[in-house]
């Protein structure tokens, strides 16, 4: 599993994805365009924290529960996708959601876990 993750991270480093774009635009609370640029130039990876590790460990369980709670979708694992024309543009959704109702739109899902409610807003406001 670790080898696959390292290969995925190396491929992700060949473009700009959703995790990067806030830093590129200067709106990230954790990263600046300058630090992002130099991290990419030097080839230094973001060190995985314990919280990040636990988030990855729980991802499959959360995806399974989402699928159980949403029978209106056929839930499939996501992956790493590259725009056919703008090769620098990447997307790495966690899940692909195919609607069983042809009148509804397919969707993507990104799974996130948190250890606190800080910064997530009041219930029902999202």
TrEMBL record:
<protein>
    <recommendedName>
        <fullName>YqaJ viral recombinase domain-containing protein</fullName>
    </recommendedName>
</protein>
<dbReference type="InterPro" id="IPR011604">
    <property type="entry name" value="PDDEXK-like_dom_sf"/>
</dbReference>
<dbReference type="InterPro" id="IPR011335">
    <property type="entry name" value="Restrct_endonuc-II-like"/>
</dbReference>
<dbReference type="Pfam" id="PF09588">
    <property type="entry name" value="YqaJ"/>
</dbReference>
<dbReference type="InterPro" id="IPR019080">
    <property type="entry name" value="YqaJ_viral_recombinase"/>
</dbReference>
<dbReference type="InterPro" id="IPR051703">
    <property type="entry name" value="NF-kappa-B_Signaling_Reg"/>
</dbReference>
<feature type="domain" description="YqaJ viral recombinase">
    <location>
        <begin position="7"/>
        <end position="100"/>
    </location>
</feature>
């Amino acid at each position: 599993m670790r080898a696959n993750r390292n290969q995925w991270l190396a491929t992700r480093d060949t473009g700009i994805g959703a995790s990067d774009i806030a830093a590129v635009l200067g709106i990230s609370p954790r990263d600046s365009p300058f630090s992002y640029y130099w991290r990419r130039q030097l080839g230094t990876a973001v060190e995985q924290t314990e919280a990040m590790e636990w988030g990855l460990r729980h991802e499959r369980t959360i995806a399974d529960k989402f699928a159980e709670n949403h029978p209106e979708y056929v839930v499939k694992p996501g992956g790493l996708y590259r725009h056919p024309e703008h090769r620098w543009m990447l997307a790495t959704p966690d899940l692909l959601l195919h609607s069983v109702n042809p009148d509804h739109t397919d969707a993507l899902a990104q799974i996130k876990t948190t250890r606190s409610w800080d910064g997530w807003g009041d219930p029902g406001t999202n």
